[in-house]
UniProtKB/TrEMBL annotation:
Domain of life: Bacteria
Any one GO MF annotation of this record: hydrolase activity
Keyword RNA-binding: no
Obligatory cofactor(s): Mg(2+)
Keyword Magnesium: yes
Protein name per the record: HAD family hydrolase
Keywords of this entry: Hydrolase, Magnesium, Transferase
Pfam family, one: Hydrolase
Length: 246
């Protein structure tokens, strides 16, 4: 088997990789709908938040494809979550007010995962450059990183930076260019198998799937992590430091 090149740079996805967006969504959904949904139990809120975040109807993908505005995809997601919870849909005025309240509240709850800062400290100590490549526009994600206390992530590529979204190779390669590294010696770490791990590999980077839920079996994980495998699997960012030390 061919030995992987030594890691000279690391690129990250943002949502659910660096920033705990789902937790922020859950807190925000409750804050803006507490009166309307006062009858919800903790289990109800978990199901509601999961459905909103999972977006099974693909409204966020429609936004990335240019078929919906960012606000429209969000409203359609909450309308679907309400429908599945047996609630009446929001009318146009209520939907607009809900979205405005959500937009104001959400950034107040952006937080980095606990394993982010220790990894960035390690990369800084070893002079390994890092950055982020995201499937959202640059300025929105820049504000998100800053709100989460991650101003130190200077390199950021958004969908509007190069006009394409992951898994298009162009967006990954722009991140590599800005780091000043080479694709084969650059890790890309993200929580989505297809878009992040497989997409990065297809672009010539070393793809890493961050599976915080720990779903792969040990055998599957060992296969992923074998030299020559398509991508590697980690369960926390602490393991990424180990990959960069090899």
């Amino acid at each position: 088997m061919t030995q992987r090149p030594k890691v000279r740079g690391v690129l990250f996805d943002i949502d659910e990789t660096l920033v705990d967006l789902r937790a922020a969504m859950g807190t925000t959904l409750q804050a803006v709908s507490a009166e309307d949904l006062a009858h919800f139990t903790a289990t109800d809120w978990d199901a509601y938040t999961h459905l909103f975040a999972a977006d099974p109807q693909g409204h966020y993908d429609a936004y990335l494809a240019g078929h919906l505005s960012f606000s429209d995809q969000r409203v359609l997601r909450v309308q679907h979550a309400r429908e599945q919870a047996g609630l009446a849909p929001l009318d146009s005025d209520a939907a607009r007010a809900w979205n405005e309240a959500y937009e104001v509240m959400l950034p107040l709850h952006f937080r980095a995962f606990d394993d982010v800062v220790p990894l960035l400290d390690e990369l800084d100590a070893r002079s390994i450059p890092y950055g982020a490549v995201s499937n959202n526009v640059h300025d929105y994600q820049r504000a998100k990183l800053d709100a989460a206390g991650l101003q130190r992530v200077k390199v950021l590529v958004g969908t509007d930076t190069v006009g394409v979204a992951k898994p298009d190779p162009v967006i990954f390669l722009e991140g590599v260019r800005l780091l000043g590294t080479y694709p084969g010696s650059t890790l890309y770490v993200g929580d989505n198998v297809r878009v992040d791990a497989e997409g990065a590999c297809a672009a010539g980077l070393q793809g890493v799937w961050l599976d915080r839920a720990g779903s792969p079996s040990p055998a599957r994980r060992d296969e992923d992590n074998a030299v020559g495998g398509a991508f590697r699997t980690v369960w926390s960012l602490a393991e990424v430091a180990e990959l960069t030390a090899r």
